[in-house]
Write a structure and sequence with these properties.
By secondary structure, the protein is of the alpha/beta class. The chain contains 10 helices and 12 strands. Helices cover about 45% and strands about 25% of the residues. Strands 6-9-10-3-11-12 form a 6-stranded mixed sheet, sandwiched between helices. Strands 2-1-4-5 form a 4-stranded antiparallel sheet. A hairpin with a 2-residue loop joins strand 11 (about 235-240) and strand 12 (about 240-245). Helix 3 packs across helix 4 (about 115-125), helix 5 (about 135-150) crosses helix 6 (about 165-180) and helix 6 (about 165-180) packs parallel to helix 7 (about 195-210).
Length: about 270
């Protein structure tokens, strides 16, 4: 009974504490400043939408968070579950529970999804001080998660994303997310290039994986993605800053009116 109560208290503590805290984040690429003071807090269980015109810094923010070495942080702090995220190498950020679904997932010919995922899971287990997963347990996990996201068995035997359509690549990334069980998922324009059916499949897979302890940042241009994900909070970026935060009504206004009215309000400030 005491152990059960301790587990409940620990879970409640996680829910109350901020998962991701970004304060005054500035970042540049090739000497050009892109992020100019980002402030953002994501709590456990929240889904945040990040919108903005091309070049506003949305993808730069996601690349900075996952540790892309092409981007240089010049000022500010990022805390992930109380730890200094910026001090971690990219692989440790992943092991701590950060996952990004790329706008254009890469192909890795000759490396099967099974081998790729087993290596990724064992790397995370090693980081956590756990022994490698057994072959039997791994195959059971693959079958469970594959069926969970509606991925055909043949896909896990093929090279990573090799010959996959755009929708298949995105669904494959949801499968990877299901296997790794991240705490914070960044969906970087996952809806790019998807037809309505593929978008619904990817969004449904993501929604089925949501828990009160997991969070997400969804970068998108389109209201249709948000209709499926139903984010808790919507942010709009312009020129490297978050200039407005609101609810679903903000995304709907952007869908109907574009970003010009926001630019005008930002200039007035």
């Amino acid at each position: 009974m005491a152990f059960h109560s301790a587990c409940i208290n620990f879970a409640e503590t996680l829910i109350r504490s901020a998962m991701l805290e970004i304060k005054n984040l500035h970042a540049s690429v090739e000497g050009k400043e892109i992020l100019r003071g980002i402030n953002l807090t994501v709590n456990p269980g929240e889904v945040h939408a990040l919108m903005g015109p091309n070049g506003s810094g949305k993808s730069t923010l996601s690349n900075v968070l996952v540790g892309n070495p092409l981007y240089t942080v010049t000022e500010g702090t990022v805390s992930f579950n109380g730890k200094d995220l910026l001090a971690m190498p990219a692989e440790d950020r992943s092991h701590e529970g950060l996952f990004m679904s790329f706008q254009q997932p890469v192909e890795i010919p000759g490396v099967s999804m099974n081998n790729f995922m087993r290596a990724a899971i064992n790397a995370k287990r090693k980081y956590q001080g756990l022994p490698p997963i057994s072959g039997g347990d791994f195959l059971k996990l693959v079958k469970e998660k594959r069926e969970f996201v509606g991925l055909d068995a043949s896909f896990t035997r093929r090279g990573v994303n090799e010959g996959f359509s755009g929708g298949e690549k995105k669904r494959n990334e949801i499968f990877q997310m299901a296997m790794l069980e991240p705490l914070l998922t960044i969906l970087d324009e996952t809806d790019s290039g998807l037809d309505v059916d593929a978008l619904r499949t990817v969004a449904d897979g993501f929604n089925r994986l949501r828990t009160p302890l997991t969070s997400a940042i969804c970068i998108t241009h389109y209201q249709r993605m948000l209709d499926y994900l139903q984010p808790d909070i919507v942010h709009v970026m312009l020129q490297g800053r978050i200039v407005m935060t609101g609810g679903a009504e903000l995304a709907k206004r952007i869908e109907s009116e574009g970003f010009d009215w926001l630019r005008e309000e930002a200039e007035e400030r």
